[in-house]
Design goal:
Oligomer: single chain
Distance between the termini: 55 Å
CATH architecture of the largest domain: 3-Layer(aba) Sandwich
CATH superfamily of the largest domain: Aldehyde Dehydrogenase, Chain A, domain 1
Strand order of the largest sheet: 15-16-17-14-13-19-20
CATH topology of the largest domain: Aldehyde Dehydrogenase, Chain A, domain 1
Number of domains: 2
Shape: globular
Strand content: 15-25%
Number of helices: 15
């Protein structure tokens, strides 16, 4: 095994990346290489050495061998390593942001914000590394007397499967708590977006993380299936879609390992007539078209009370139409491309079908190439689209589009608003816009979603637990809950 670079060149090309196994970047794999295409230009801008079963087996074996020493490392030393990761990431935010933009086409301001946010997750979980505590159990008067207590312990080797839409953020939400808890980690990074994750791994090694503790395996379904099935992988954390989640659960049953699932969403912004309408529309549009609509917890449904419905539709259309679409490296760009040609064509087909039964207010097409700068005229751009009078039971209202499409739906009563908000298979998030505190107290307990925001989103601070109800998954990322997902509890009794 010899080393290959995982960094992009200064010209904007991403170069070559591949698996990191036991501190070494592999220069060849059992599967071979694929080109990476920049979604903003449509042109190849890098090469990815994919991982297969052999690379997974080697990484898991190295992680298993490294775990006893990593687990035995004093918590304060683990804390200092994770703090150093945070410091180095903060110093490399421009570079990490540039990488994310080159591989995803995300606007540069958003890419940089994601890198900064990810660094904060490592700082947060560094603070937990030396605060993992058990409990003392009170003795029962009718039982044998003694000392009864609990000990939280790491699983050992944890498999982490990342999705392509902003994997740098999942690095913070998953890898940071897993390492703080004392686990070794094998990461299957997405073949569509492996470069930022690879650069993070270089930073982690530079920060002093022992080589066998973190392994990065860019790859497709074969690598993922092998990682889930491997008997030496004690648990899996997955972010992605429902069909893949079902396959993972089916594979995990062979070893009965726990699986944390962060899946899709169909978040609704619910606008009551007493809301600040400008704030509600601005917040919803900003959320919906973030990352060109390619996110699980974006507000892709706008439920508006009939008293303000037409005003909300007009304002949402105007706000969407004003968004700048194009070169993601230009400072004013709000929307970059979607991830590829297949995604663009699928999104346009969804819009076309939805327009048959709803009102197409703005957008609905691929972006006119002549309006784009020459560098990005072959990219995969879709106009920010607003559909009004959407049937709440239609495909576009019930399922993820994963593109820049906002569905606007009217409601008449508070009860109807709750029913509509809960009407999809998902339960990741809901946003309420109202000045009525009593209404908030009535409605929040009725919403079937893991997160509820009122009059604006939080920005996902690392101390806040994140996860879904229903088909949006189970388990939590973030906060104390996110740490304890990567720990199992041992009970100890010592007879007096």
């Amino acid at each position: 095994m010899t080393t290959t670079t995982s960094r992009p060149s200064s010209t904007g090309e991403l170069g070559v990346t591949g698996p990191l196994v036991d501190g070494t970047w592999l220069d060849k794999t059992s599967v071979g290489a694929v080109d990476h295409a920049n979604p903003a230009t449509g042109r190849a801008n890098g090469s990815v050495l994919l991982s297969g079963a052999q690379e997974v087996d080697d990484a898991v074996a190295a992680a298993k061998a490294a775990h006893p020493e990593w687990r035995a490392l004093s918590p304060d030393k683990r804390r200092r390593i994770l703090q150093r990761v945070e410091e180095l990431m903060l110093s490399r935010v421009p570079e990490l942001g540039r990488l994310t933009t080159l591989e995803l086409g995300a606007p540069i301001m958003m890419s940089s914000a994601l890198a900064h946010l990810t660094a904060g997750w490592f700082g947060y979980y560094a603070g937990w590394a030396d605060k993992i505590e058990g409990a003392t159990i009170p003795p029962s008067p009718v039982m044998v007397q003694g000392l009864d207590y609990t000990v939280p312990e790491p699983y050992g080797v944890v498999g982490i499967i990342l999705t392509w839409n902003g994997p740098i953020m999942s690095v913070g939400m998953k890898i940071a708590p897993a390492l703080a808890a004392g686990n070794c980690v094998v990461v299957k990074s997405p073949d569509l977006a492996p470069f930022t994750v690879a650069r993070f791994a270089e930073i982690a090694l530079e920060a002093g993380l022992p080589p066998g503790v973190l392994h990065i395996l860019p790859g497709g379904p074969e690598a993922g299936e092998r990682l889930v099935r491997h008997r030496d992988v004690a648990m899996i954390s997955f972010t992605g879609g429902i069909p893949t989640a079902k396959k993972i659960l089916d594979t995990a049953r062979h070893t009965l390992k726990p699986v944390l699932l962060e899946l899709g969403g169909k978040t609704a912004s619910v606008v009551f007539p007493d809301a600040d309408l400008d704030e509600a529309v601005t917040g919803t549009v900003r959320s919906c078209f973030n990352l060109s609509g390619q996110g699980c917890n974006l507000s892709t449904r706008l439920l508006a009370h009939r008293d303000v419905y037409e005003q909300v539709v007009r304002s949402a259309a105007a706000a969407a139409a004003s968004l700048s679409v194009g070169d993601p490296f230009l400072p004013g760009t709000a929307l970059g491309p979607v991830i590829g040609a297949a995604a663009r064509d699928r999104i346009l087909k969804v819009i076309e079908q939805a327009a048959d039964t709803s009102r197409l207010v703005v957008g609905g097409h691929a972006v006119d190439r002549t309006t784009l700068t020459p560098e990005v005229r072959d990219g995969y751009f879709v106009e920010p689209t607003v559909l009004a009078d959407v049937d709440p039971n239609s495909e576009v209202a019930q399922h993820e589009v994963f593109g820049p499409v906002l569905s606007v739906i009217p409601f008449g009563t508070e009860e109807e608003a709750v029913e509509l908000a809960n009407s999809t298979p998902y339960g990741l998030g809901t946003v309420l816009y109202t000045r009525d505190v009593s209404r908030v107290q009535r409605v929040v307990p009725l919403l079937q979603s893991g997160t509820v925001h009122v009059n604006g989103a939080s920005g996902q601070p690392p101390g806040a637990p994140f996860g879904g109800y229903k088909h949006s998954g189970h388990g939590r990322e973030g906060g104390r809950e996110g740490l304890y997902e990567f720990l199992q509890t041992k009970n100890v009794f010592i007879r007096a």
